[in-house]
């Protein structure tokens, strides 16, 4: 079996391990202005109701580095996206969509009725992904992101997808 075989395999999505957290912190730092460190991620992972997923590709060397991650929080029959990010060099290859689809599949199993998220109104890529998956806008929070780094006025769009 050649090295190339591994690169042609689609990434798999599975629950994050503690050993994934340093790489996840790197991806978070490369994706957001306010980075979460390993300790913060570990506390989040340990919280009841948290679903912490990673996408990874098999490797001939056995190392299965996370390419992206998704954190969801489930409370009663509702859930929210805490965050999602894909490593910059891996974006645009369907990994974000695969993570969200895996999360939605898990939420069906948990009998959740709705999944909510907040997204910066200027985050075109994320909006394309969420709309593509069937999320629709249900509200706005002006100034939610405080003083934004990348333009806009910090408005968050609140989006929801109905699961049942
Ligand atoms: C948002 C993010 C997670 C998307 O991950 P990704 O792996 O790049 O997205 P995908 O390749 O799975 O794209 C999924 C869909 O989004 C849309 N999309 C993504 N990138 C796009 C682009 N550059 N142009 C047009 N559409 C795009 C498409 O609808 C695409 O579906 P399709 O490929 O079936 O047409 C990623 O860009 C990221 O990590 N951004 C920084 C962190 C962030 O903003 N997180 C969201 C916080 S709310």
TrEMBL record:
Signal peptide: none annotated. GO terms for molecular function: N-acetyltransferase activity. One of its GO terms (cellular component) is ribosome. It comes from the Bacteria. Residues 11-164 form the N-acetyltransferase domain. Coiled coil: none annotated. It holds the Pfam family Acetyltransf_1. Keywords: Acyltransferase, Cytoplasm, Ribonucleoprotein, Ribosomal protein, Transferase. Belongs to the acetyltransferase family. RimI subfamily. This is Ribosomal protein S18-alanine N-acetyltransferase. It comes from Roseibium aggregatum. The lineage of its organism: Bacteria, Pseudomonadati, Pseudomonadota, Alphaproteobacteria, Hyphomicrobiales. The gene is rimI.
